[in-house]
Every structure is written in C-alpha cells, then in structure tokens.
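Running this now, will post back.
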Amino acid sequence: MSRNTESQDTWKDNSDNKPPEFVEVGQDDMVSGLLYDMLQKEVIALRKASHEKDQSLKDKDDAIEMLAKKVDTLTKAMEVEAKKMRREVAAMEKEVAAMRIASLIGTQNHSEKSFLFPPL
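Update: finished.
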C-alpha cells in the first residue's frame, strides 16, 4: 500500500471519530477547526462593530431629537416675538395717526383763530 491509500484507510477506519482539525457543519460539509475559529472571531468582531454602529446611530438619533425640540422652541419664541413686534408697530402707527390728527386739528384751530382774530 502506498502512503495515500494508507491515510485513506485510516480515515475510513476512523470515520466515527472525526479528526480534531475538522468540525462537522452540515451533513457532508466539513470546515477545519482553524478556519472555524477564524470565522467565529470574525463574526464576533462584526457583531461588536454592528453593535457600536447601532449605538452610534441611537446617539445621533437622540441628538437629532434634542435639536428638533430646540428648533421647535426657538420657532415658537420667534412667533411670540413677531406677534409682540406687530403689536408694537400697530401701537406706534396708532400714535402716529393720533399725532397727525392732533396736528391737523391744531392747524385748523390755528388758522380759524387767525381768521377770526387778525394779528395786531
């Protein structure tokens, strides 16, 4: 027997006891233990990275939510300030209108007085 045939015979004889460097994955699929360990470490690393990214996204979502609340608060404050300014402008316009009316009335009174009583 050649060496190849001998190792195949050993494998056939030892079919119940799987070689230590192989792990059964499926019915007929085999993966070396080294490759399995490497893949397992990669899966763990990917899960950790995924968890970190999920946490980062959650933190960013929280920050966005907080900023949205601040924007809402500032928008409401701006609306209140705009209403206040409109009221002030309306009050000033009323004052100006009252001054004009008073000015017109004063001018009319002055011209009536000068018509009735000519200067001396």
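The helical segments are 3-13, 33-116. More later if anyone needs it.
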